[in-house]
Design a protein that fits this description.
This protein is an alpha/beta fold. The chain is 63% helix and 11% strand. Among the domains are: 1-86, no CATH class; 346-421 and 538-583, Rossmann fold (3-Layer(aba) Sandwich). Helix 6 packs antiparallel against helix 11, helix 8 packs parallel to helix 11 and helix 10 (223-276) runs antiparallel to helix 11 (284-325).
Length: 583
């Protein structure tokens, strides 16, 4: 800013050359140097005036060349320092964006499953991408508001007052008018910006659903329907973004118009003073310099207006980000949580109930699993089977009662220690777009290739993996799209076996497979279930005949318990389900 202003002030001698003849210019006396900060600045100013008046009077062509070179140097240093500011600003702004996005992602990983079940994935993605981008803009605006624009305003104001106090007083009428314009537009802008960001979330969700469900969309000839629905969502988003952009850009445009009006008023007011020829009238070159400096003074004022508008717009995004960051994580380690290294005796449910919002999902559940036992949980959809194993893994906290491992409540055990003792194989195998080895040793930074191969062999996966182009280094595609259903499930079992868990949880691991794949997966499961504590949610009752204990759930309650033979002899709900499947 200093070099920008200096480049303008250096033009005064040129203006003198234009407006006056060299012989009519009054020579300035050579100043005497005195110590002190104010005196030093005055000495530099007076010495420059002395040098330039002498050059303009005696050799105007040399003066012209000197001014041109000086102005060029001023512009060079102005842009050099501006690039330096951008250099450091870029690092800071991206570091802030990185930290905010890291916090959001970390928070999303620690939020309970209930949040991810209820909320749209597109909404969370919009907050991580679109809202965080708004924060990046706000960081730049804040830096300029704190370090650049106020400094620029102060320098320009001081220069204007020095050149002409009367014209400066007249020109400062712009400031309160600008402040009024910003405040009026800002309130409306924030409301519209929030609606725009919320609609961005809806649009992200619509895109995610369309891309994820493209197979079903095509199968039902619903492409045109889905496209029409997306176009409607996108149109609403476009209208809101357009309204936001219009309001954001309105404030600086109005300020520029007001500034142009004040600038012309200054030309009229100052021109009357010069033409009037009064004793204290400004010289032509000083007046022109004042007008040039004032036009530069308008730029930081307009930038302040623009930056405030951007920050008001980003407030809506900040509020949306804080909504996530301030959410209660619910499932966290207690202050006195203890570690656990092994499972030695039993896992016990003691009068466990779980309520989700107003709905009672599990009601007074009690049972025990001894180390090495194989327990199965059966029941119709919605009976609470999956919720029960989610409580064991502490994806949720129990509403009442307790779950104990070797006499210690799971709520008093460190979550990482608890989950490291267990492995989960779900009905829908979630795999990642990386290599086979990385999926089997998921979560380990330095995996053992021997352990990976051993886990694959146990899961009946080693044979098909070896036949792949790059073996264990083969990329399997997004969500394992390059594998068959049976292959994905066997990799999921291998992943569960990699760390040799003490408790293995199988959530309907074979229900979605064809008969051939089911046979291979079932063989793998029988192998991994040997000498290991297993909790199995079963859809096909024929797979749990050998279970030590079978719990039958209905509407969140255990209505029957026993082994396969005992339950058939009771001729109750379990026998009814079994007969339906074999007939």
């Amino acid at each position: 800013m200093i070099f920008n202003l200096l480049s303008l002030v250096l033009f005064i001698p040129v203006l003198q050359l234009i407006f006056k003849k060299p012989e009519s210019i009054t020579l300035v006396a050579e100043p005497e140097f005195q110590w002190g900060i104010p005196d030093t600045f005055l000495y530099v100013k007076d010495y420059y005036n002395f040098t330039m008046t002498s050059m303009v009077r005696n050799n105007p062509f040399d003066a012209l060349l000197f001014v041109c070179v000086s102005v060029m140097l001023a512009f060079f240093f102005k842009n050099l320092f501006r690039y330096g500011a951008v250099w450091f600003q870029s690092e800071l702004r991206m570091a802030v964006v990185r930290d905010v996005r890291n916090k959001l992602f970390n928070k999303s990983m620690s939020l309970p499953l209930a949040y991810h079940t209820n909320e749209r994935k597109g909404d969370l993605m919009a907050r991580m991408v679109s809202d965080v981008n708004e924060i990046e803009i706000a960081v730049v605006c804040l830096l300029e508001l704190l370090f650049r624009e106020p400094f620029a305003v102060l320098i320009n104001v001081a220069t204007l007052i020095y050149l002409s106090p009367s014209l400066s007083l007249f020109s400062f009428l712009l400031m309160p008018i600008s402040a009024f314009v910003i405040s009026r537009i800002g309130k409306s802008l924030k409301r519209t910006a929030k609606k725009s960001q919320e609609q961005t979330s809806v649009m992200y969700s619509s895109m995610d659903e369309g891309i994820e469900g493209v197979r079903i969309i095509k199968a039902f000839n619903a492409a045109s329907f889905v496209v029409r629905r997306f176009k409607k969502t996108n149109l609403k988003h476009q209208k809101l973004v357009t309204r936001t952009a219009r309001k954001k850009n309105l404030s600086p445009l109005l300020n520029e118009t007001i500034g142009a009006g004040v600038l012309l008023s200054l030309v009229w007011f100052g021109g009357r003073i010069i033409l009037g020829g009064t004793e204290n009238a400004l010289s032509g070159e000083i007046f022109m310099t004042f007008i040039i400096v004032f036009s530069q003074f308008l730029r930081p004022i307009q930038n302040i207006s623009k930056n405030i508008s951007n920050m008001i717009k980003s407030r809506a995004s900040q509020d949306r980000i804080n909504e996530i960051l301030n959410l209660d994580e619910v499932v966290v380690d207690t202050p006195n949580a203890k570690g656990i290294s092994s499972f030695d005796k039993e896992l016990v449910f003691k009068n466990v109930s779980f309520q989700y919002e107003s709905e009672l999902v599990l009601d007074d559940i009690s049972f025990a699993i001894e180390k090495g036992q194989n327990i199965a949980i059966v029941g119709e959809s919605g009976s609470g089977k999956t919720t029960l194993i989610n409580l064991i893994l502490r994806f949720y906290n129990v509403s009442s009662g307790s779950i104990d491992i070797d006499g210690q409540k799971t709520s008093d055990i460190r979550i990482n220690d608890l989950r490291s003792m267990m492995s989960l194989v779900s009905q829908d195998p979630i795999l990642f777009n990386s290599s086979v080895a990385e999926n089997i040793a998921f979560g380990e930074s330095e995996p053992s290739r021997e352990k990976i191969i051993e886990a694959a062999k146990i899961a009946n996966a080693h044979t098909f993996v070896e036949k792949m182009q790059n073996g264990y280094d083969s990329i399997i595609g997004e969500r394992g799209s390059l594998l068959s259903g049976g292959q994905k499930q066997r990799l999921s079992i291998a992943r569960a076996m990699y760390n040799n868990p003490e408790i293995l949880i199988l959530d309907e691991a074979t229900s979605a497979l064809d008969l051939e794949s089911e046979k291979l997966v079932q063989e793998a499961l029988e192998r991994v279930m040997e000498e290991r504590t297993c909790i199995v949610i079963a859809h096909r009752l024929s797979t749990i005949r050998k279970s030590d204990l079978i719990l039958v759930l209905d509407k969140g309650k255990i209505i029957e318990r026993g082994n396969h033979k005992e339950l058939l002899e009771q001729e109750g709900f379990y026998k009814k389900l079994y007969d339906l499947q074999i007939n």
